[in-house]
Amino acid sequence: MAFSVAVCGLGNIGQYTLEAVESAPDCRCLGVIRRRESLGKSPLALRGIPDFASMADLVAASGRPDAVIVCSPSRQVPSTASAFLKEGFCTVDSFDIHTRMTEVVGTLDEAAKAGNAVAITAAGWDPGTDSVVRALFEAMVPSGTSFTNFGRGRSMGHSVAARAIPGVADATSITIPLGGGRHSRLVYVVLEEGASLDTVKAAIKADPYFASDPLEVRQVSKEEMPFVADASHGVLLERVGASGLTSNQHLTFDMRINNPALTAQVLVSCARAAVRMKAEGCVSSYTLIDIPPVKLLPGERMANVARLV
Amino acid sequence: MAFSVAVCGLGNIGQYTLEAVESAPDCRCLGVIRRRESLGKSPLALRGIPDFASMADLVAASGRPDAVIVCSPSRQVPSTASAFLKEGFCTVDSFDIHTRMTEVVGTLDEAAKAGNAVAITAAGWDPGTDSVVRALFEAMVPSGTSFTNFGRGRSMGHSVAARAIPGVADATSITIPLGGGRHSRLVYVVLEEGASLDTVKAAIKADPYFASDPLEVRQVSKEEMPFVADASHGVLLERVGASGLTSNQHLTFDMRINNPALTAQVLVSCARAAVRMKAEGCVSSYTLIDIPPVKLLPGERMANVARLV
Q1: Among A51, A253, B86, B111, which one is least packed by beta carbons within 10 Å?
Q2: What is the reported pLDDT for A47?
Q3: How close, in Å, is residue A162 to chain B by CA atoms?
Q4: Is ipTM strictly over 0.90?
């Protein structure tokens, strides 16, 4: 099966998504949808893919894509994806606000059914592939304790939250695992002219994103910031418990990755699954734990069963 | 959803399966099917569950189970499961001969469709949950190198193969990982009266199960054997490669487990999935990479999405 996608948004994730599409053997990108005022800009990031100000323009020039990969900021994802779904386009997104998951699955499900399309949401690594590992851990070891230990790496959500603090010109928040699923935060800040580091520190500490974790704030110059803001990240998932009545079962999943590159790759793998599920008439909204893993991979099912099972 | 099972076979896996059913919040066991001459024997292993010489006897006494967990030796699995499927019983098994996987999936698919039932095969940890991890690894990092490193632990397949060598009264084969997916074998043997250790060593080395790996054979007495034959096992799955065009993505999955306890637990989790898929009319045969992970868990889908995604 070959399939086509459109990419909506050309931020960090959008750019890596174009690379993941380029390297996939069965996928091509028909175009990028972005703000009209950005059209034609950043040609290197576009990697030769045409850009359009709307889906209508993209379809008129390149035809209908099998799926849209929504690379908007998380808060915009539900409305952006819903609009595409209602027009009959399958969507994939990496919405990452854990506390709103069932609400968003419900919203997208309604839109998917209205448009006879398939939505896959939370298609990144956490939520996303980590969610699959957590589900698998519980299927193997139903009673016990799991920990998700993030980092060391830059948290996009915490960096954005810190940037919104008055007096902060720029910020990078590094997540440092302390074990047992607990984390400390190391926040590098560039201060605005005249801002006080102590006031900013107190405001960050009071923010709900940071309130419950040990916090260190370090001031850096605008010129120093790029040197502490790279894309390395990782996670250690652990579960210790019992299979049946047998205790002392130990499971761990550990990865060290480029964060946006992995998110973009999971988006493309999920676009493949969405197109397949649409072809099977499974019109609904899904998260990664709702999807048969074999559907994420290029190639025929039985060839993958023979190779991987 | 609550569901019922029958367990066919009361060997090592069958006994642990009864424990896994006992600890599951939503599953009960209607009975064990075993050879007529064994009926009533090993009451502790039966854990209060009635035993029967046939499915007809079990159904007459306890009613129809929603699924049959087939705990026969691997070679007997395809015919045993097919017979149950044709009679309309969903089946789950931990068939583990990797090279026959597509053949057995095909055989069970035919039987499942004939009986309007669902089959899940290769439902252990390798093949099984490791297969899911391998598929997930490739969805995250499509180009690169994977290694499956087994052990240190007892290989049931290799132990059985060694026991079949002339002159061997009993054998335990320990798998030792050498890295890069390679393994050495340490085989403890109890010799039959008059057998030569050198001859036995040569015969083991010539067996296709052992021919390609470094081998050490150690003679032990019948009394010593139990002290080297425990159920500890483990695996380290590794993948290093690229997501999209970005290299240096490192993924590892490491577990240290009681081998039959985990296999039995995966069987029970898959029985749950089989019953759900039957209710949805998805009559076919599946492996673990064909199954949405959320279906393996007790509880409602959206509650698990909220908790795990």
Answers
A1: B86
A2: 96
A3: 25
A4: yes
